[in-house]
Every structure is written in structure tokens, then in C-alpha cells.
Amino acid sequence: MRLLHTSDWHLGRAFHRVNMLEAQAEFIGHLVTTVREHAVDAVVVSGDVYDRAVPPLAAVELFDDALHRLADLGVPTVMISGNHDSARRLGVGAGLIDRAGIHLRTEPSAVGTPVMLADAHGDIAFYGLPYLEPALVKDEFAVGKAGHEAVLAAAMDRVRADLATRARGTRSVVLAHAFVTGGRPSDSERDITVGGVAAVPAGVFDGVDYVALGHLHGCQTLTERVRYSGSPLAYSFSETEHRKSMWLVDLAADGSVTAERLDCPVPRPLARVRGTLEDLLADPELTRHEGSWVEATLTDAVRPADPMARVSERFPHTLSLVFAPERAPDDPEVSYARRLAGRSEQQIAQDFVAHVRGTEPDEREAAVLREAFDAVRADDAAREVAR
User: For residue range 9-56, what is the model confidence (pLDDT) as tens digits?
Assistant: First the structure.
């Protein structure tokens, strides 16, 4: 069976101040063309279909168009909800849509109930593991401690238990939305850290033939059987070096996997440029970026006059202007934002305690801070579900 693995469409999301709906519509058209031209047997979409729980109407209309076009091809599609989606909203009408060959899997309780498809060599079970917010599903999976690894392990136990009841030779595909150890994150993914831990080991998914992951926006291979497709479009300048693509996966009769990357359309290339304002305006090496979306970092010791207007004269698609004067790390003028860059909320809070009190928080105090952050995250997730 030939699968097309994609994820993280984030319909309705903007790139800085640029509306990406037109580029997202172009991607949907490319997806449909790819399915047709490459004789794809099934499409898998591993979460974050929308960018937020209550998406704008234009995004819902684009999703509706995508479903109709995929259904018209007669190619089954399996999709799960991600941490940006409202599982309840995305899953509305799932029973009816099932009849059109579009299989929405948004209920945690249904992780052990597969979508069954078949090819010339027999059955293939597709198990959809929607994003599992630990604080909200720990009772469903009867885990003592709410953590990503615990709930995913319990969900996979249900998958393996069901697979064991299937006919010998039944192949299996799991869709999951999670941060798996070894994956490389970018700035555009929402933090899903729980208890100070975000990543789960790839070994959680042992026992199935292919794992189609969503959440991280860079296309990457963790093992030959465990892959991220990444997002089809860039949503932050941290993705400047990403090659946006989908996986074309061939699942053989014996369950072996071969995969090929298929590139997605690029609406406009991204570029990060850095230097003094005068250098950026004069450097001939930067000519190739004049048509790109640009993030310009100015290293001038003193902020220049009208920097955005002057940068935009050469780079008319400049979307982000950053000021980072070249100073020693211990210089008191180093900006607060630069001092916090790359640090988690937990680390920032612990540093604040140390600054105010003069001593680092002990393990018990660090645990209290961690529980507070987890409680806020869980409350935010519960509010989104209840909307």
C-alpha cells in the first residue's frame, strides 16, 4: 500500500503579518495532485489541521474543500487532531464523514479501534492517536502520573492488544501527535512540556510497521519506521533551513517500509540576515535574498534612524527586525530578551527565585514550580476543550 504522510497544516495561521491562506490553498491543491499522480492508496494527516481551537471561517472553508477533493478521488484519508486543534470541533460529523472515506480520529477512548483498509496482500490497520493531553486523559488510560510517556504507552498497549486479535500478517500504521526523543523542534511549535518533560522515547511505538508523526515542523526520520512529515509551510524564521515536504511511503506485503520525500510548493523563500545596517544595505552577497521574506538582525552599537524603512528599501519583504548590538555576554546592556532566549518557563522562574533569594530553589521548590506551570497548561487545555 502506498501512503502519503503529511501533518501540521495549521490552516488559518499567518506568518508574521502575512496571511498564509492562499499558500495553504496552493498546498491543498498540490496534495490532491500528488495523490492522483503518484497513485496514492491512502492519505494520513497527523494532527494540527487547524492553527487554533476556534479557527476562522476561511480556514474552515478551506478544510471543507480539502475533504471534498480528497473524497472525490476515492482515496481513503485518516486524520487525527493535534494540540492546536479542538478535538471536539474537528470530530463533529466524523461518523457521517466516515462513509465518504474520510476517517477523523479525535477521541482518546478510540485509540485501539483501527480504520481497516486492504490491498492485494491483506489488511492494514490504521490506529489514530490524537494529541493526548496528559492531565485530561490520565483517567481514561488509568495512569497514576500524568505524563506524555505514560499516556502514550497506555494508548500503544491498546493498539498492540487490538493488533494481536487481528489475522496473522495484518500490517499496522499508527498516527500520533507528540514530541518524540531525537526530534528537532523549531520556534513555531507550541510547548507541550509536562512535568519538565516533553519528549517520549521512540520505543513507545514498538510493534507496528509505520508511525506517522505530527507536531514537529521539520521533516525528519527518527528510525526507518518512525518519521515526522513536518509542516508543509514555514511558520517561523527558525524554519529557514527546512525543506518542506511530505513522505510517500510504500508499505510492502511483509511490513517493510520504503519512503521518498516529495517537496511542497514554496510561496516565498525565507532568509535571515545579520550585520550592521550599512553592511546589510551594501553587501553584494545578500542580493539573492532581495525577493525573500527576511528577518534582519542589526548589530549596530546604537540603534540607527528609520531602520525598518531603510532595510525595506533593499529587502521589500522584510517581516522581522531584531536589534542585537554586539556586546559581551556579561555587559549590563545585553537585552532582557536575549538573556531569556532559549530558556524554558521553569528555568526562568528558578533563576528569578535565585536572583531574589540568593540561592537556587531546592528539588521540592522546583517541583512546586513545575506543578504550577503544569496546572496552568492543563487549565488552558481544558478551557479550549470546553469552548
Answer: 999 999 998 999 999 999 999 999 999 999 999 999 999 999 999 999
Q: State the Cα–Cα distance between residues 15 and 55, nearest whole angstrom.
A: 16
Identify the helix (H) or strand (E) that includes residue 323. strand 318-323
Question: Residue 208's closest CA among 226, 220, 221, 222?
Answer: 226
Sign of the CA dihedral 180, 181, 182, 184?
Answer: positive
Number of residues that make up the chain = 387
**Residue 129 pairs with which residues in a beta bridge?**
176
- H helix intervals, the chain: 21-37, 57-73, 87-90, 94-98, 134-137, 148-164, 277-282, 307-314, 336-340, 345-357, 363-386
Q: How far apart are CA 354 and CA 365, in angstroms?
A: 11
* Residue 369, pLDDT above cutoff 90: no
* Mean residue pLDDT across the chain: 90
| Among the listed residues 241, 249, 191, the one whose alpha carbon sits nearest the alpha carbon of residue 215 | 191
356 phi and psi angles, rounded to 5 deg: -75, -40
- C-alpha R_g of the chain: 23
Q: What pTM value is reported for the model?
A: 0.85
From the list 92, 87, 176, 85, the residue with the least C-alpha distance to 126 is 176
Q: What is the mean pLDDT of residues 315-328?
A: 89
The answer to whether 82 and 7 have CB atoms below 8 angstroms apart is: yes
Grid cell digits, residue 215:
507536531
Q: Which residues pair with 136 in a beta bridge?
A: none
Residue at grid coordinates 490497520:
125
Is it the case that residue 375 has pLDDT exceeding 80?
A: no
Asked whether 376 and 345 are in contact (CB, 8 A), the reply is: no
The strands making up 115-119's β-sheet, listed across from edge to edge, are 115-119, 122-129, 171-177, 210-214, 226-228, 220-223
